From TrEMBL:
PANTHER family hit by this protein: LIPOYL SYNTHASE, LIPOYL SYNTHASE, MITOCHONDRIAL
Positions that bind [4Fe-4S] cluster 2: 61, 65, 68
An example molecular function term from Gene Ontology annotations: 4 iron, 4 sulfur cluster binding
Binding of [4Fe-4S] cluster 1, residues: 35, 40, 46, 274
CDD domains given in the database record: Radical_SAM
Primary location recorded for the protein, binned into one broad class: cytoplasm
Protein name, UniProt field: Lipoyl synthase
Keyword vocabulary terms for this entry: 4Fe-4S, Cytoplasm, Iron, Iron-sulfur, Metal-binding, S-adenosyl-L-methionine, Transferase
Annotated localization: Cytoplasm
GO cellular component labels: cytoplasm
Length: 288
């Protein structure tokens, strides 16, 4: 039987002027955000502060991970003008740190890497003072595709391992734990000056110590930033929550992560991969 959701996971609903304005802008430019598609609990806070994570390459994913609320199916959308619209939105929002992610596009030869690269360049052209973080899929181990993204030189390269080694095949669809670690290592080898980042989601059947082991795996593959957050079941059809961790447990993971040598550790019940991402840039650059 799943535990009742604890008090520290309750989110304050705030749909003020900035939230409504941002929602209207996204719809007018036919843009998707992972904030909405993945039902992120921080959407009200982030949008009130005029920050959002853009989701490119459509809103239909070719994978069906058991934790994710994004729609699954056969995508039909490939919009070559999307990078320019994202750049326009970043400019209108006055964003100083832009985060760009995508659905998995296993139907495309390069997994959408060329669109990622074009989006990075478009944002930079319109917004030269804005830093750009990309959260990429694994491109099915296509390292030439990864090279396309790294050659565009994002300020942070993010790829999520999502869970611990033992639970990976159960939690993730088609993704492989060793392949994700290899991607992060190769990204750093391609562009050593670019900080790398990954995220761990807890409450899906792992143990406390396995989370530490996952951090050690990331550290061994030259990852600079790690985020740790509580899994929240998006619908009844998705994987059930096995455990709610306390804020003190998250604080312990943060302390251990910093001791391991990460430049930045964001660890808390409501932390998601892009949460407070703008605050991580300087600390990461200082330690690469």
């Amino acid at each position: 039987m799943t535990e009742r959701k604890p008090e520290w996971l309750k989110v304050k609903l705030s749909t003020g002027e900035n939230f409504q304005e941002l929602k209207k802008m996204m719809r007018s430019k036919t843009l998707h955000t992972v904030c909405e598609e993945a039902r992120c609990p921080n959407i009200y806070e982030c949008w009130a502060n005029r920050t959002a994570t853009f989701m490119i390459l459509g809103d239909i994913c070719t994978r069906a991970c058991r934790f994710c609320a994004v729609k699954t199916g056969l995508p039909t959308e490939l919009d070559l003008q999307e990078p320019d619209r994202v750049a326009e939105a970043v400019e209108q929002m006055g964003v100083r740190h832009a985060v760009v992610t995508s659905v998995a596009r296993d139907d495309l030869q390069d997994g959408g890497a060329s669109i990622f690269a074009a989006t990075i360049r478009a944002i930079r052209e319109r917004n030269p003072l804005t830093s750009v973080e990309v959260l990429i899929p694994d491109f099915q181990g296509n390292w030439e595709a990864l090279q396309l993204v790294m050659d565009a030189k994002p300020d942070i390269l993010n790829h999520n391992i999502e869970t611990v080694r033992r639970r990976s095949d159960r939690v993730r669809s088609k993704a492989k734990y060793p392949r994700s670690l290899e991607l992060l290592k190769r990204a750093k080898e391609m562009q050593p000056e670019i900080p790398t980042k990954s995220s761990i989601m807890v409450g899906v059947g792992e143990t406390f110590d396995e989370v530490i082991e996952a951090m050690q795996d990331l550290q061994a593959h030259d990852v600079n930033i790690v985020t740790i957050g509580q899994y929240l079941q998006p619908t009844k059809k998705h994987m059930k929550i096995e455990k709610y961790y306390t804020p003190d447990e998250f604080a312990t993971w943060k302390e251990i992560g910093l001791e391991l040598g990460f430049s930045h550790v964001e660890s808390g019940p409501l932390v998601r991969s892009s949460y407070h991402a703008h605050e991580q840039v300087k600390s990461a650059e200082a330690r690469v």
